[in-house]
Write a structure and sequence with these properties.
Elements lengths: L1 E4 L5 H10 L8 H9 L3 E8 L2 E11 L2 E9 L8 H11 L5 E7 L3 H9 L3 E6 L9 E7 L1
Parallel strand pairs: 4-5
Antiparallel strand pairs: 1-2, 2-3, 3-4, 5-7, 6-7
Helix pairs in contact: 1-2
Length: 141
């Protein structure tokens, strides 16, 4: 597996994968292009045999960061790709505080974050379109 920074050339593939994943943010290609152009955003893609299989978006500066979008293609889950993406992204930071929101229905993601040292910091009631709550998780680097 190869993890690398994503670029504007990757926007259509990122949008396709984002739309295909249940718990991602479902950004369209325009939103991906805008995100990739923001200096405060870092986007990493995971490729396996030349195929995009996952991504992670981190936004922030100084010592405050947020994982804003993260997904692994369904056929490639439970293979450590998501965990390696999280570990890689966090290793790129100089330190600070990292937060994220995750659906309380997404137990595999919650488990992954807990294994990486994230803890629950609160809940956002009815945060998602389906009415489910978001668990706010964070980690100090």
């Amino acid at each position: 597996m190869n993890i690398q920074p994503a670029t504007a050339v990757d926007a259509s593939l990122l949008a396709w994968l984002d739309q295909a994943c249940d718990f991602s943010a479902h950004w369209n290609e325009t939103a991906w292009r805008e995100t990739l152009a923001q200096p405060a955003c870092k986007v990493w893609s995971a490729e396996l045999d030349g195929k995009l299989v996952g991504f992670l978006v981190l936004r922030g500066a100084a010592d405050q960061y947020e994982i804003t979008n993260f997904a692994v293609e369904a056929a490639f889950r439970r293979q450590g790709i998501g965990r390696r993406l999280v570990q890689y992204a966090l290793a790129q930071l100089p330190g600070g505080d990292v937060t994220l929101e995750v659906s309380i229905k997404n137990m595999p993601a919650i488990s992954l974050y807990e294994k990486e040292g994230f803890v629950c910091r609160g809940v956002r009631k009815q945060f998602y379109k389906d009415g489910s709550d978001a668990q706010i998780m964070g980690k100090r680097l």
